[in-house]
Amino acid sequence: MSQEPADDDWRLQGQERYLAGASLKLMPWVSPNPSWDHDHCEFCSAKLAGPGIADALHQGYATQGLEHWVCLQCFQDFRERFHFRVLP
């Protein structure tokens, strides 16, 4: 089991305001509108995009409205701290 990140972890930038207790679903990245070609992890800023963008992650955890994405590593690192709920 990995160690919980410290309170001064560089990835923590006040996300608790909008992600504490969030319901997230593991899914392939999808665009919320035709002009959108990628998103970034809310913690580490890793790029999430469709399979046409080679230097990006292609799946992550997303909120129901697709407004917030969390990469797999940051999800694992902050799941307990933020009390994330996983949607089926």
Largest sheet: 4 strands, mixed
Distance between the termini: 23 Å
Mean pLDDT: 94
Query: Percent range for helical residues?
Result: 10-25%
Q: Assembly state here?
A: single chain
| Overall body shape | globular
Ranges with pLDDT <50 over ≥5 residues?
none
- The overall strand count is 6
Number of domains: 1
Pattern of helices and strands: HEEEEEHE
The assigned structural class equals: alpha+beta
Percentage of residues in strands: 15-25%
> Roughly how many Å is the radius of gyration?
13 Å
Spatial order of strands in the largest sheet: 5-4-1-6
Number of helices: 2
Task: Characterise the protein shown here.
This protein is an alpha+beta fold and 88 residues long. The chain has one domain (24-86). Helices cover 17% and strands 24% of the residues. The protein has a four-stranded mixed beta sheet. A hairpin with a 5-residue loop joins β4 (59-63) and β5. It starts with 15 loop residues before the first helix and ends with a strand. The model has no long low-confidence stretch (mean pLDDT 94).
Task: Jot down its keywords.
alpha+beta; two-stranded antiparallel sheet; globular; 17% helix; 4-stranded mixed beta sheet; 24% strand; 88 residues
Topology, pairings included?
Blueprint: H1 16-19, E1 23-28, E2 38-40, E3 47-49, E4 59-63, E5 69-70, H2 72-82, E6 85-86
Parallel strand pairs: 1-6
Antiparallel strand pairs: 1-4, 2-3, 4-5
How would you briefly describe this protein structure?
17% of the residues lie in helices and 24% in strands. It has helices at residues 16-19, 72-82; strands at residues 23-28, 38-40, 47-49, 59-63, 69-70, 85-86. It has a four-stranded mixed sheet with strand order 5-4-1-6. A two-stranded antiparallel sheet has the order 2-3.
